[in-house]
Amino acid sequence: MYVIWALMFSLLAVLLVKGFAPYACGSGIPEIKTILSGFIIRGYLGKWTLVIKTITLVLAVSSGLSLGKEGPLVHVACCCGNILCHLFTKYRKNEAKRREVLSAAAAAGVSVAFGAPIGGVLFSLEEVSYYFPLKTLWRSFFAALVAAFTLRSINPFGNSRLVLFYVEFHMPWHLLELLPFILLGIFGGLWGAFFIRSNIAWCRRRKTTRLGKYPVLEVLVVTAITAILAFPNEYTRMSTSELISELFNDCGILDSSKLCEYVNDFNSTKGDDLPDRAAGPGVYTAMWQLALALIMKVFITIFTFGMKVPSGLFIPSMAVGAIAGRLLGVAVEQLAFYHHDWAIFSGWCSPGADCITPGLYAMVGAAACLGGVTRMTVSLVVIMFELTGGLEYIVPLMAAAMTSKWVADAIGREGIYDAHIRLNGYPFLEAKEEFSHKTRARDVMRPRKSDPALTVITQADMRVEDVEAIVGSTTYSGYPVVVSRTSQRLVGFVLRRDLIISIENARKKQDGIVSTSIIYFTDYCPPQSPNSPSPLKLRSILDLSPFTVTDETPMEIVVDIFRKLGLRQCLVTHNGKLLGIITKKDVLKHIAQMANQDPESILFN
Amino acid sequence: MYVIWALMFSLLAVLLVKGFAPYACGSGIPEIKTILSGFIIRGYLGKWTLVIKTITLVLAVSSGLSLGKEGPLVHVACCCGNILCHLFTKYRKNEAKRREVLSAAAAAGVSVAFGAPIGGVLFSLEEVSYYFPLKTLWRSFFAALVAAFTLRSINPFGNSRLVLFYVEFHMPWHLLELLPFILLGIFGGLWGAFFIRSNIAWCRRRKTTRLGKYPVLEVLVVTAITAILAFPNEYTRMSTSELISELFNDCGILDSSKLCEYVNDFNSTKGDDLPDRAAGPGVYTAMWQLALALIMKVFITIFTFGMKVPSGLFIPSMAVGAIAGRLLGVAVEQLAFYHHDWAIFSGWCSPGADCITPGLYAMVGAAACLGGVTRMTVSLVVIMFELTGGLEYIVPLMAAAMTSKWVADAIGREGIYDAHIRLNGYPFLEAKEEFSHKTRARDVMRPRKSDPALTVITQADMRVEDVEAIVGSTTYSGYPVVVSRTSQRLVGFVLRRDLIISIENARKKQDGIVSTSIIYFTDYCPPQSPNSPSPLKLRSILDLSPFTVTDETPMEIVVDIFRKLGLRQCLVTHNGKLLGIITKKDVLKHIAQMANQDPESILFN
Question: What value does the CA radius of gyration of chain A take, rounded to a whole number of Å?
Fold first, then answer.
């Protein structure tokens, strides 16, 4: 029955995605990152995607697959933001303004998904957005505030709390406990790197082999396997959020869960109402079940993320970490209980007292695994606070997040979102990596030495047919305009599209424009002899402030300029003469080439 | 006795500052902001400043003046960072790298001052730093982690907590309470704007009149007045941190403070262990004392901030807000108690129960006032969390912070640090304001139309004496090098300093360099006739990739380029010919001019 329901939900989800909105699959964060960096994916943030993603997200989560709702909710929020933008002229016309709205929408998305408004703003800053000025920070903050306020008004958890996994721990942590926390960080980093590699390898196989042709079948098979494996184990049968919540929880005297079956026949020296910490049979059973759940989650998530249903990564990653953390926590706890006379425990862990909080280990483990997969740091720690209210555990969380990032970065430099961006070949100029090679603009610009000269348009002596011939024989998106072919002094840059439209319009609507009309890009147009055709003035479509660098400019600076100013192309001059052009694609290709020549990066990619 | 001790401490502090390290005064944050934006203040981050500031900060805080330790601690941290930088060649030589270290140091400073590691990172991002790439974010995060870890190891509060003002509230807040919270936000904004205006007016008077000549006397007078006014009132006599801590605290049954003297003869409907909420005589006395303390703090802080002692603003601002908040909180509480039948209280505030937490109001008020003065948003809310552990009150805090920022921004656009930067005339290019005027590069560049032409150096036909004449007759920091005077095609840019040093060295050490030697900036140097003096080759000092824009480039873009790339100057070309130059000072002057022409900004400044 469980399996049949799961199959029905997932079948419906994948059919809806396949039939109506192919963009509704996946988490959407890699694509939003790419869009925010200036690339346009038409329809990705449209209303169909919104409707279908919302419906299928519910179905996909209900089907028991190992996926979360957070990433897709960010995508949904961005769809809403984009659609609202269309209502206001100011945003409809201005690409940059719209991107600011999308950044704020991403913040609101996380804010709603987790009830973590500040974490949402920081997630948008650290992980999603490409360019994040302070103004956008405040706007995102406001969006997140409204989102949190709305959430609070609706009060979905029924406890006047925004916090999803509220924990209340009794004991402060001891400095020596940092050791297991750092171990959890290392585990998180290893898991993150392993997950990214395996997932990318599997997605690449899906893209290149016949497997990709049967997305519906794939979803059904994975759902069936998940359901069959998950059902017998109570920790995988329950919803993943519940599982995390239970793992985070500290055992009070009233807790009846198996995880809290401690033997109570030791005399507590403190006489408090906490159970003594010798693990009972229930705990041992739970440990086995959790270990099995861990193995299952680890593998099934690799195959789930990237299927043709909406799928987020936060919850599965956190579950893996929480299970590992709880296992380690119970182990350390038992160690401290049975060996409280060891030197490392002496002084802070009196016999019979509970000095270890396994729930805290679960929390730290969850943070470490999430960090390993996404490579977040600040936003991760803030999200963990806001999720759990565990403000006192800032140092353990930070230590685990940092270790996890270091370990994962040492194995593979990209986070899961960047890896998927590269897998899909989006033109994304990574803002995080420093470019430190010693090449210069002249090494990257086109034309190369052996190629024919750069196609240029002169400002005052070309005929309409000459320009049409240039436009017809090349596919560049724009052409530099120079004073004359001999001087090669740059006047401006004209876009191919503008050029085609202007000439077409002029031929249709303007009298006397024929193939032999001279095109003038100058302000002043000399008087024509009476029998020559009337001239075509195109100064208005000329961009008079194209970006230029000299051929000697180090590529380090060029890359920096492209990133910070969001350029699509840049002209290269030498001693005031136009020499060539560098486009964003040239820059990306160059960075990739340099990275491949670098022996270290071969090892790490 | 109290007054005499205060006078002794403050006298010692001001004498030390005046005698050994004049830079040790004030909060230091405006100067650090300026330094991070690329300006150099020699000795500002040196070892003397470090030593003297550390000592005098202790003295100034002990003297009972209305000042805090947070800003100065950021300065101290940056001094440490700067001094450590000198030990490593990598950082000593690279200005940009050093600034990254300083950003991280600022984060660590706040982390230590408040025990708020994440808040510190965000403070550095939002308030202090000029350019904050993700790499710096992670490094700051690490620095803050180590700082928090060290703090935790030392355990200064003796409770295994980093949290300075730990609060534990019992009641969730009700949506209707947002109204008073927003009122507190408005109060915070008004106070912030009022404080900034008055403080700047006072500091300007100090700078321009005879007052500035007697810093020691000023400090003594202010200390004496503070001490005399503060002593009779128990809320101003105690240290400001204690005051804030007491105001934030909710009244438990065990609290013996006057603020918690509630009348207990009403029968609580809940039968819980909380005191009933009819204010007793103690509360009324406390209210009067607090109101007086508020008035005193408001005025004395205006005169204190900017004196010749280290002085931070966080704690005094928070104190003002906390007092105002507590007053409002008690008022609302009593209103709810005596009028629980009113429609607005019905349904959530049963008779005799305590449904209002005055401590929460104090917390929100503190956030609002701090926000009004500094205009922080995200970092403010995070710092408030980390200070109090009050994670559930995220929406009230966010609402107050946002309101406060809006109100304060409507009255005066600058935060206190920016206002002090402008007061001191540091060349700081504000990264937050958008420049939206329609001027172009040609309107700003020098030379203006009526001025003589730009001073340039030609690449291959100037003699040593010609160049020396140019360097001697002008004071520019650098000169563009062109192909020839007639073509005006730009080759590169040479710094005045490099030029002087190179020519001097060549004259001393190189044979045959005389006043009539030709200077070559070219790669190739043509063979000289035997009887002419040997040529001087200076290509190595030429910057071959100077930044250029065309004369038609909108100033909006030019300002953006200056900000994002941290330029000091930029050359202006037209059709490939060099036309003029724009320096950072020209940009700043232009922005100021345009702001003055704008009728709106006159109103608001």
Answer: 30
Q: Do the Cβ atoms of A134 and B389 come within 8 Å?
A: no
Tens-place pLDDT, residues A411-431: 988 889 988 988 888 877 776
Between CA A394 and CA A359 the distance in angstroms is: 15
Residue with tokens 């998904």: A113
What's the predicted TM-score (pTM) here?
Answer: 0.80
pLDDT band at A598 (very low <50, low <70, confident <90, very high): low
| Contact between chains at A392 and B389 (C-beta distance less than 8 A) | yes
Location of each CATH 3.10.580.20 domain in chain A: 441-604
Residue A538 DSSP label: -
Residues above pLDDT 70, as percent of chain A: 89
Sign of CA dihedral B207, B213, B215, B221: negative
Partners of A348 in the β-ladder = none
Q: Where, residue-wise, is CATH 1.10.3080.10 in chain A? A: 2-166+175-423
Paired tokens of A347: 């002084």
Q: What is the mean pLDDT of chain A?
A: 82
Burial A183-196 (b: 16+ CB within 10 A, else e): bbbbbbbbbbbbbb
B2-423 belongs to which homologous superfamily?
A: Clc chloride channel (1.10.3080.10)
Peptide bond into B447 cis (omega under 30): yes
Question: Residue A158 has what pLDDT?
Answer: 61
Question: Residue B231 is encoded by which pair of tokens?
Answer: 């002593």
Give one DSSP letter per residue of B148-168, joined into a string: HHHHHHH-TTSSS---SS---
CB A495 within 8 A of CB A541: yes
Average pLDDT value for residue range B226-247: 85
B173: distance to nearest CA of chain A, Å? 8
What ipTM was reported for this prediction?
0.76
Instruction: Check A432 against B160: CB less than 8 A apart.
Output: no
At residue A264, the pLDDT reads: 57
Chain A residues with CB-CB distance to B489 below 8 A = 489, 575-577
The CA distance from A465 to A481, in Å, is: 16
- CATH assignment of A2-166+175-423? 1.10.3080.10
Residue B277 in this model has a pLDDT that exceeds 70: no
Separation in Å, CA A211 to CA A215, A291, A298, A457, A501:
8, 31, 22, 49, 44
User: Which residue of chain B is at minimal alpha-carbon distance from A560?
Assistant: B565
Which residue among A153, A441, A546 places its CB closest to the CB of B175?
Answer: A153
Going by pLDDT thresholds of 50, 70 and 90, the confidence category of residue B184 is very high
Cβ within 8 Å of residue B519, ≥6 positions away? B457, B462, B463, B464, B467, B535, B536, B538
Task: Give tens-digit pLDDT for B124-161.
Answer: 888 887 777 777 888 888 888 888 888 878 766 665 55
- Note the pLDDT of residue A323: 93
Residue identified by tokens 């105001």 is: B247
Peptide bond into B533 cis (omega under 30): no
For A25-70, write each residue's pLDDT tens digit: 888 889 888 888 877 788 888 888 888 888 888 888 888 888 888 8
Residue A466 distance to chain B (closest CA, Å): 22
Contact flag B489-A489 (C-beta cutoff 8 Å): yes
Burial A76-94 (b: 16+ CB within 10 A, else e): bbbbbbbeebeeeeebeee
Q: Give the integer Cα–Cα distance in Å for B558 and B566.
A: 11
* Closest Cβ opposite residue A402 in set B121, B142, B163: B142
The shortest CB-CB distance from B577 to any of A389, A394, A576 is to A576
> Does the B441-604 domain belong in CATH 3.10.580.20?
yes
Average pLDDT over residues A251-266: 63
Cβ contact A545–B561 (<8 Å):
no
Q: Using 50, 70 and 90 to split pLDDT, how confident is the model at B255? A: low
